[in-house]
TrEMBL record:
It comes from the Bacteria. It comes from Nocardioides marinisabuli. This is 3alpha(Or 20beta)-hydroxysteroid dehydrogenase. SUPFAM superfamilies: NAD(P)-binding Rossmann-fold domains. Belongs to the short-chain dehydrogenases/reductases (SDR) family. InterPro entries: NAD(P)-bd_dom_sf (IPR036291), Sc_DH/Rdtase_CS (IPR020904), SDR_fam (IPR002347). One of its GO terms (molecular function) is androstan-3-alpha,17-beta-diol dehydrogenase (NAD+) activity. The keyword Nucleotidyltransferase does not apply.
Length: 258
């Protein structure tokens, strides 16, 4: 395979949840590989800092992914970047850290609206434009929680939803030349995990075959690959990037007695 198939030169990408954590790293990695990126987030200050650091290849756009009209603005803004809009990374996500009996209706709705409805809206609004550009690649950021579970019930349901929605989209959009895959990060060192105590982090990492926190760059390398022509035969797939967490964390207990 020639290195050129990994290049994103001439492509335009939309990345949501782009201001911080993994999203910021997706923007950096894709612009490094030649893409122009519309970086979408609610956090204007963090977005402005990111694009100031990257330069002209990244453009900031404030929007809430849970809102249809704001997605239409995202589409219109992305089309003004020039080039072919051929990459969408549905990365924005929230978690509420409540249990079944404590979760409020509003709390449930917000997690589902951002994580699941936002992913659908992004595909609904941008897939027709990507079709006109000749096709492309959509990467939906689910979670290891979309392969097993998370203590937050709405988070688990939203991430299983993203995984299933990805299969539907892969079937429907394949004939338009659009590949759709979900990625399933495990523990990644981002602001989303700032809540975690040292004990919790230590316990989780000790159960991993690769016993370190994932870094945003680990996920960004996978996303940039899936966005590129080098991944041209991959669609409808679910790819764990979790240091082995979902390969059998329970085996850790058994290993201790071997
Ligand atoms: N960090 C992890 O361990 C981990 C593990 C598995 C999956 N994930 C998923 O990866 C994705 C990125 O996570 P992260 O850890 O980088 O999170 P993060 O909290 O560090 O960053 C998320 C970004 O999304 C933005 N955002 C939130 N709601 C939004 C909305 N409605 N519209 C637009 N932007 C919005 C936030 O402002 C923030 O900049 C999320 O979907 C998350 O669920 C994270």
């Amino acid at each position: 395979m020639s290195f050129d198939r990994l290049s994103l030169e001439g492509k335009v990408a939309v990345v949501t949840g782009a201001a911080k954590g993994m999203g910021g790293e997706h923007v950096r990695t894709m612009t490094d590989r030649g893409a122009r990126v519309l970086a979408v987030d609610l956090d204007r200050d963090a977005l402005d800092m990111l694009v100031a650091d990257i330069g002209a290849a990244a453009v900031a756009h404030v929007a809430d992914v849970a809102d249809l009209e704001q997605w239409e603005d995202v589409r219109d803004r992305a089309l003004k970047l020039g080039g072919e809009l051929s990459i969408l990374v549905n990365n924005a996500g929230v978690v509420s850290h409540t249990r079944i009996s404590q979760t409020t209706k509003a709390g449930w709705d917000r997690v589902i609206d951002v994580n699941l409805k936002g992913t659908w809206l992004g595909m609904k609004v941008l897939a027709p434009v990507m079709r006109e550009a000749g096709g492309g690649s959509i990467i939906n950021v689910s979670s290891a929680a979309g392969l097993d579970q998370h203590p937050d019930p709405a988070y688990t349901a939203s991430k299983w939803g993203v995984r299933g929605l990805t299969k539907t989209a892969a079937q429907e959009l394949g004939p338009w030349g659009i590949r759709v895959n979900s990625i399933h990060p495990g523990y990644i060192d981002t602001p989303m995990n700032d809540f975690a105590s040292e004990e919790l982090t230590g316990a989780m990492l000790s159960m991993l075959p690769i016993s370190r926190p994932g870094q945003p760059q680990d996920a960004a390398e996978l996303v940039a690959f899936l966005a590129s022509d080098a991944a041209g035969f991959i669609t409808g797939s679910e790819i764990a990037i979790d240091g082995g967490w979902t390969s059998g964390a329970q085996a850790f207990e058994a290993r201790r007695f071997r």
